[in-house]
Amino acid sequence: MTTDTIIHSRGLAKRFTAPGSPGKHVQAVAGLDLDVSRGELLAFLGPNGAGKSTSLRLLTTLLRPSAGTATVAGCDVHTDPAGVRSRIGYVGQGTSGSLSQRVRDELLSQGAFHGLGRRERARRADELIESLELGPFARRTVQQLSGGQKRRVDIALGLVHAPTLLFLDEPSTGLDPQSRANLWQHILDLRESHGTTVFLTTHYLDEADRYAERVLVMDAGRVIADNTAEHLKAGLAGDAVTLGFPDAGLAEAARALLGHLLHTGATQVTDDVGRPGLAITIPDGAGRLPDLIRALDAEGLPPASAAAVPPTLDDVFLSLTGRSLREADLASSGPDTDAPHPDQTLQEASRP
Ligand SMILES: Nc1ncnc2c1ncn2[C@@H]1O[C@H](COP(=O)(O)OP(=O)(O)OP(=O)(O)O)[C@@H](O)[C@H]1O
């Protein structure tokens, strides 16, 4: 652990009693080993039930670990949870503010909760109203705001005491694409101007890909990959090339030729319009596609369709687990996992 380390955990774990089934357990987090440096922007990506929120709630001391150790912002989660809480900001999945309070008053109350003096909390509220562009709504009540505006208020609430570390649980879920982009711009700006470490969870592959400097892919309570999105995708060795053919005989002949040319086997698939096709993953597939088409053409095997698609983080998840994120989400969306958890109110406990 260096002086720059803001989160350090080893074997951090959480086991719940399965809701409605005493005696049965759910291993929500199965041993989190994590080192995060100051100023990083990292995202947990994973399907429903992977353990992302539970990990965040362990690190923010909203849940007590079943095993393991963690130091967050210099404080031990077991022995100094109050120290952790005073140094971090946490924005949970639900809207955290009181719906009937005006935005500025809500920020002032939150400042008072954190022990800021009258002048200091007014200064902080106005600063956040400006940096999160909440000026036009500052005198409205929270319930009069749109989803994106509410989320910005949530983030402002998490930042009132100027934490150096901000945890955001699915900050953009449920927002339309424009509000998501706008919210992200605010998160990036805050980070740029204050050097805040931002640790968030998301379901959105594109967000993790585009904005997070470090992506922790989580599945079944474990981090199964931890790197930049670029590295994770590059590890998959290339673009997915799909070639369609007028009939199965030509596809089979093309398969033999491609095997010879590329020294790797192609998988039989159907192309976009249902023709017999071949799929193959090759480095720089998009760049090499014209040469491949010419080579097939020269042998009297011209493809009827051709496409090269760069890998996504979903391909990374697929290659790591054998399931796409969507399949994994569907598999975990049974009635039990959708039911509210008994300790959901813990989120409320962090509020004044
Ligand atoms: N209070 C609780 N009691 C019992 N089981 C729980 C509780 N909280 C979470 N779980 C279970 O722990 C596992 C991990 O849940 P968690 O909410 O951390 O997943 P997640 O990755 O954040 O999912 P989502 O993306 O749906 O928010 C799931 O199987 C969930 O049902």
From TrEMBL:
SUPFAM superfamilies: P-loop containing nucleoside triphosphate hydrolases. Residues 7-245 form the ABC transporter domain. Keywords: Antibiotic resistance, ATP-binding, Nucleotide-binding, Transport. Residues 327-352 are annotated as: Disordered. One of its GO terms (biological process) is response to antibiotic. The keyword ATP-binding applies. Pfam families: ABC_tran (PF00005). It is found in: Cell membrane. Gene3D superfamilies: P-loop containing nucleotide triphosphate hydrolases. It is a peripheral membrane protein. One of its GO terms (molecular function) is ATP binding. GO terms for cellular component: plasma membrane. This is ABC-2 type transport system ATP-binding protein. It comes from Citricoccus muralis.
